[in-house]
Amino acid sequence: MGDTPDIRQIRSAARIMLICPDCGQENSELADRLRGMNSYSCRGNGCDYSFILGGRRQDIGKGFVEACKRFYAAFYTMRGQGAR
Asked: Is the pTM of this model over 0.85?
C-alpha cells in the first residue's frame, strides 16, 4: 500500500483542459488553482473570452433549498388537514 498515491495528491495534481468556444485555444490549468477562482480568462491571442467557474453552484443550492421548503410546507399542510 505504500506505493499507492493518496487520493488527495491525485486530485491536487489533476489538470483541467478548458477549450475556448471562441478561438479554440486549449487552456490547461491545475485543478487546485481553478478551484478558488470564479472565472478564468482565455489565453488565446486577442481573445477576451472568460470561463465562468463558480456562479452556478450557488444557484443550484438555493433552488434545492426552496424546493425543500415548498415540499415541507405542503407536507405539513396536508398533515394538518388529516388530523382534524
From this structure: no
